[in-house]
Description:
The chain has six helices and 57 strands.
Amino acid sequence: MRLLGRLCLLALVVFLVWPLAQRYVLAPVTGLFWASSPQRANLPEEAEQSTVFWLESADWLRFSLAENTPTLRILSHLQMQPEQNTDESLVRYALDYRVLARDGEVLASGRYHYKAVTLPPRPLEDGREFPARFYDDPSLIPSAGENLFLDLATVPNANSLELRAAYLPDDRNRIGVQVTGREVRSREDVGKLWPRLDPNTRRRLLRPHVYPPHLVSSFEIENALQLRWMPLGPEGVAGDDFDNDYLYTLSVPPAPPAEAEQALPPGLYADPNKWVTLPVDYDGSYRLEIQSADPLVTDVNVSLAHQSNQDLETRQQLLTGTAPQLTWTGDLEPGLLQLIPSAPVTVRLFDVSTGADVTPDKRYLQAHPVAADQPVRFALDPGSAEPQPVRLDVRTFSHPQRAGSGPDPRVRLEIRAADGTVLQNVEQSITPAPSFYQRFSQQAPDSGVSEGQSLFLEASPGAAEVAVISNTPVLVTGYTRLASLPLVRALPESRRPWQSYGDRVPSWFLMNPVATAASGQGPVSLQWFFQPIERNEALLSGQYDWQGLDIQGSSLQRDVLFPHQLSGPLRDTAVGSVFRALPEDAVSLELVPPSPGLPFRPELIYQRTGAQPTTITVLKDGAVWLRRGIAGRTGRFSLPVVAPGQYRIEVQGDGQWFLNHNRPPVGAGYLQRSVYSLDGAGLIFELDKAEAREVVNFDVVAPSGVDRFAVEVAVAADRRATGLLTDYSVLKRRFELEVQEWTTLVLGTQSKPAAAPMSVALPLGEDMPPGRYRISVRADRAGGLVSAYTVREGQRQTYRFFRRSLDGY
């Protein structure tokens, strides 16, 4: 009993003396060995402390999981350097995760990429301003936390979670994680827990509620306590198996924005030098709200243009109004809207029928500063056995907070081996035009970016990196692709660049640099907009030469007729291929010869519901021009020789009739073309490339009875220009086609109308030298039809050998 009494007395003395010893004895001694930072010394009372665990790139960090854990939450952030925390910086990081069973089997895995952003500082009640998130070391900056939730209900037998760093923008960066498991408690348990919580914990748990804790109902309190996130720690010993640190978070709302009256109105910013485009995805009635961004501006003029997806025709109008807001309402078909204002404005687009805001999201691009003594290096695959395509987009710029581009910029590219040996060394002058569609993502006065000038090259096998060096500051973005990777496009939903942009696989893939500029200026963020497509005026005016491609070997050939909207004048070389649908009654039209002074014989094509023989009569100016018998559902025949001129034509016979050698009405017409049968073995077309840039076009008719099918087009070429290139041709393309209409007549057959032709293109740039090329076309199923042709600008055909034109336009 005496011993027990002494122990109790000792415990009482320790309990009473411990606070004093902790303050006056232990604190000074501790300060001799662990110096506290100024930030820790001034730690605000509003700061909440938590522990973060640092991920390594080489080793996995393992967390054991409790049984019946339904959900995991991984809260990650990036420990950044001060020079990375700028308005224009674009810092990214990535982590890998995998969920393991007890025996080590990987049940689930993945990689997540994040953009590291920092939160604005928070104002304190004592008047100080403190970072929203901070460490004990004030020289390091934590980014905002990013959540990753894992549903373990879909992963039975999960025993542990492993994490590691997958990508760090700089060797000095670290990824910190906090892992918690979701736990659901019964109402009986949480009812007993609430009275035991201290007031600060109660206020923190009920922070989302409008009312103070003493006014919150017991049912809502139980709801708040039922769901709990339990922190999980990694396996091992701190300092040996893993590293950890303290992270502080201020539970304080952010300060109101400074100079709120100068904040831009919501929407996309535009001014006379920075234009805006907005994709329109569907037919409908739209409202465009244009709000002045300058309070001193009273009158606003906006040039509004709409380019249609169908034919790229552009319609323009000028909007005028007074500040603060200009509104336009109208019907739009799918296409691209372009706005060029006379003063700074912001733009928003609304769907009138639903009232929804359909303004597109902002699109960003990463670019890296380059200078003479600050090269940017992009890693390549030294183990690659084939050449590695590289694309570098170089931009000049001006910015009030950065050293801008000087005159006559020149860029040098060095392809290096793993040991540093220079394998290729090329230099190029950069002369890009100023851009109206690209800008720094953070608006800055007197800032500007040029269009990207693309430089292409094929790095030789064994190349480990490409270094970019410039005699003056420029911005560079690097891309690469697999040489054998086909370019895949779904048509017609992805025909224009702005259609289904987020769903398509890119043709080039971004490269992250090995090391950024030594000055400490990291990558910058650029905002960009789609540009309208410029139509070739020479082609629109009929100044071009159409040339069909021949095939190797033999294949069944058919003539087809399908609807075609003729644009521009009717060319002499196309009068035999363009048809007009004749009405049931007589029609007055002008018959046009293929060449002045030559006699010609127009042709008629018919389509009938029945196949029985019958007799038809063709009248010209009321007199019989031709009477003959026909049979079958479709067919064609020639009319007697006629002189050019205006005639009144009528066909007496059942069915629909089509006549060539005359210009059809605007927006109507039919095109006759010769096509080849596309069987399982495919076809090979031959192209004699004569121009620096050629585009091979293919009109593809789907097999009967299918709604979707795929066509693959490939160039058999073992030669490509070497050195620095201004073009890079993708030699293998796959088109996934969706049938829209069944309007094609296959002449000489008894079949129903076939699918409307769908056009696909294969561009060949300056990197492919002039010469003969073999182009293969294969489909994923037999039964389709295809034709191939080129359209070259300018009139080259000065004489003709054929009575009827064989070209297609």
